[in-house]
Amino acid sequence: MADTLARWRQLDRLFAGRYRRRQFENANSRVLDVACGTGRNFQYLPSSSEIVGIDISDEMLAHARNELERLGLDGTVHQMDAQALEFPDDSFDTVISSFSTCTFPDPIAALYEMERVCTPDGEILLLEHSRSDAAPLAWLQDWRAESHYETNGCRLNHDPLETVEQTDLTVQNASSAFFGLVTTIEATPR
Ligand SMILES: C[S@@+](CC[C@H](N)C(=O)[O-])C[C@H]1O[C@@H](n2cnc3c(N)ncnc32)[C@H](O)[C@@H]1O
């Protein structure tokens, strides 16, 4: 998927750009982007941030490195499993992640890891797709869920807020947009 996603930059900006900007433009200081993919979020982070991205896929990370270079940003990316982050506790002021908990085999483990590496007064900012609150769209998502998972490894009709609520994180703010297809969550470590 890495090359395809990289080619969809303009499309992503059109559909997801405004949500990425709103959710991540105030990310603070040292920022970890978990499952950064091709580095889509980097351009929406404050230019003063120190960016660290991780992803399981080297192919995605190759594009993420190019994105850092293209934007002239000072950051690093590393191959790593979101469910077993190789950073000490309290390493980052802000942990961000987008369209990712739907793909993790164990999203709850990944969220606990995000909490662990976030400073106690830091923030975890998530941008996720979610099951629509419009019945016909939700029906379509349910109908395609199994085959979409088999082809793309993504749970099309998941409920990210419900997943976050199963962890220790404190949800400070959650909202949905675009017929409930997009969910943003701001959470803090307990
Ligand atoms: C749909 S893409 C989203 C990428 C990016 N965050 C974005 O918004 O464009 C999901 C990403 O999760 C990564 N991923 C899946 N499982 C992972 C894991 N266990 N640890 C780290 N990254 C993982 C994939 O390689 C992929 O880059």
Molecular structure report:
With 190 residues, the chain is an alpha/beta fold. The chain has a single domain, classed as Vaccinia Virus protein VP39 (Rossmann fold), CATH 3.40.50.150. The chain has six helices and seven strands; from the N terminus they run ααββαββαβααββ. The relative contact order is 0.15. The model has no long low-confidence stretch (mean pLDDT 96). The protein binds S-adenosylmethionine (SAM). The site of S-adenosylmethionine has 16 residues, from loops.
Give me the secondary-structure topology.
Elements: H1 2-7, H2 9-24, E1 30-34, E2 50-55, H3 58-71, E3 75-79, E4 92-98, H4 107-117, E5 118-129, H5 135-152, H6 160-164, E6 170-177, E7 182-188
Parallel strand pairs: 1-2, 1-4, 2-3, 4-5
Antiparallel strand pairs: 5-7, 6-7
The protein binds S-adenosylmethionine (SAM).
S-adenosylmethionine is lined by residues 35-37, 40, 55-57, 60, 81-83, 98-100, 103-104.
What is this entry, summarized?
This protein is α/β, with parallel strands linked by helices. It has helices spanning about 1-5, 10-25, 60-70, 105-115, 135-150, 160-165; strands at about 30-35, 50-55, 75-80, 90-100, 120-130, 170-175, 180-190.
